[in-house]
Automatic annotation (TrEMBL), chain A:
Subcellular location: Cell membrane
Entry's transmembrane regions: 9-30, 112-134, 146-171, 191-212, 254-276, 296-322
Coiled-coil region list: none
Entry keyword set: Cell membrane, Membrane, Transmembrane, Transmembrane helix, Transport
ABC transmembrane type-1 domain residues: 110-319
Family: Belongs to the binding-protein-dependent transport system permease family.
Membrane topology category: Multi-pass membrane protein
Name the record gives this protein: ABC transporter permease
A Pfam family that the UniProt record links to this protein: BPD_transp_1_N
InterPro entries, per database record: BPD_transp_1_N (IPR045621), MetI-like (IPR000515), MetI-like_sf (IPR035906)
From TrEMBL, chain B:
Annotated Gene3D superfamilies: MetI-like
InterPro entries linked to this entry: BP-dependent_transpt_permease, MetI-like, MetI-like_sf
Membrane topology, as annotated: Multi-pass membrane protein
Keywords: Cell membrane, Membrane, Transmembrane, Transmembrane helix, Transport
Protein's recorded name: ABC transporter permease
PANTHER family: D,D-DIPEPTIDE TRANSPORT SYSTEM PERMEASE PROTEIN DDPC-RELATED, OLIGOPEPTIDE TRANSPORT SYSTEM PERMEASE PROTEIN APPC
Domain of life according to the entry: Bacteria
Transmembrane segments: 29-51, 108-133, 145-165, 171-190, 229-252, 277-300
Pfam family, one: BPD_transp_1
Primary localisation category: membrane
Amino acid sequence: MILYIGRRLLGVIGVLIAIAAVTFTIFYVLPSDPAAAACGKSCSAERLAAIRAHMGLDQPLWRQFGDFVTGIFTGRTMGSGQYTLHCHFPCLGYSYDNSEPVWNLLMDRLPVSASLALGAAVLWLLLGLTAGVVAALRKDTLTDRVLMVGAVAAASLPVYFTSMMLIYGLIRTAGLLPYPEYVALSRDPLHWASNLLLPWTALAILYAAMYARQSRSSMIETMAEPYIRTARAKGLPRRTVVVKHGLRAGMTPILTIFGMDLGGLLAGAVITESIFGLPGIGRLFYGALAGGDQPVIMGVTLLAAAFIVIANLVVDLLYAVIDPRVRY
Amino acid sequence: MSVHQPALAAATVGASPWRLARRELGRRASVRLSLVVVALFAVMAAGAPLLTRLSGWGPDEFDKSAVDPYLGGQPVGPLGGISAEHWLGVEPVTGRDLFARTVHGAQVSLLIALTATAMVVIAGTAAGIAAGYFGGRVDAVLSRLMDLTMSFPSLIFMIAMMSVAKDVNRILLMTAVIGLFGWPGVARIVRGQTLSLKHREYVDAARVGGSGPWRILTRDILPGVSGPVIAYTTLVIPGMIATEAALSYLGVGVRPPTPSWGQMIAESVSFYDTDPMYFVIPSSCLFLTVLAFTLLGDALRDVLDPRSGRQ
């Protein structure tokens, strides 16, 4: 088990370095001059040169990439003389637009994005699994049909459409909820939840639909297994059979998608965050695009990739917990 | 497919698997309905120039008489200015014809989505077959590549790529960028299918008979994987349409004045209080197309790939 985790962690680091290399090549080599973008319009030649030196753009490309990767593990000192900057571990670069290391920017925004993603995940799991299990147990009845048609329809709605409808219906017209304005969980949990309720719902509608479809098919398959018949024949209560024997085994494929979805959402809720004005990583990324803030774009891409890879690893480890047949 | 034949009624014995599939599909109301919707949008997209000539207004023609300058450029008339002149009403402020913009938007959206899907399916099938059939090092390299591609935060990456590339053909770039991340899904399915086919007796027979790998791959393996691939393809299309719309919604997709549904929705957001129809029209087009392709894909998967998915 420990050997397995170790091997996988090495794999994770390898994947992240590969992603960093690809992102680096694309965003630092192909387009416009990142130094000019960082410097802005009224940029003196002296300052431009300083920023170039800071970013290491005067160095060969492999050297720049090497510095970038070493910086992540050890931190690095950028520039020299008057413009010296120390970017501490883990250094993902320095945002000249925000005058702050990228890592600090990301960590500032992470609680918002994490609140959004985790809350939505709880909601969509509840909704999706319930709908899926109910539909599977009542296979081919009207309930099943209605739930599944509803799920396909909900999955076809773009998240910005659902969000606008929720804003229009619940905030503008009915006035039931305040317009979302992020409040930290530690400051006021009730406010935190009520403000995030709409963004959670918007995301949950989209994802729950997919989980309902997936858990339905997975449950139908599991409930046809002989061991379910055995459990029933033993006289176990229906609830125990469904939840402990059926759902638990049927969870593995759902867990796989869940890992990818949650990992992708932690730093990838660009649309939802910008519609609801939540100051999360997605918003940071969207802002960085407009300003051409390459270090931030790079940082967000890497963080998002890290979340996906780590989520996949955690999911693989959880398999063994959920399904006793899986061993490492 | 042939394994399932004994279960079917005597009347169907002798019919080809494709014929059986078609018969099964024709029985479903959802399939017929989604085919109608898909056909409608396909005609709309293909005949966009013709349709706008019929309606009389091009997608970029301004009609100042259709908007009221004293009401902040609101469309004249009810329901966003729907009239005999403007079939689906007009855009606020500019007075551009919404029907023309919607059908031209359909053209852009479907063109990008279908081309990207074709790319994904061809690349994915090739990679999947190669990985599954040759195994060993080829499989190891391709599978690593699939894992790597799937670890990319695709939406973030697509947005970033679309926004840094400045002076290129947006439609072409968008197709390439959207297509870049889809192939591992197809490749995984094809790889699994190929693995299960490559040691079947008829493949061994072909090998013993002296067929080369190319001939075996194209004549014996490819037809065997085509069912699941077709089903999966139909399920990829709505994802591609939605991604294109999302990128255009975020303002990194096709550039104005080229219309696209996502972009129209984004623009309509600031008018949704005063002119809800402007928001409703492109949104419902997007919703209906995605829904129709999803239903179609579901049905195809049930029929062509009975082992995976719903039963």
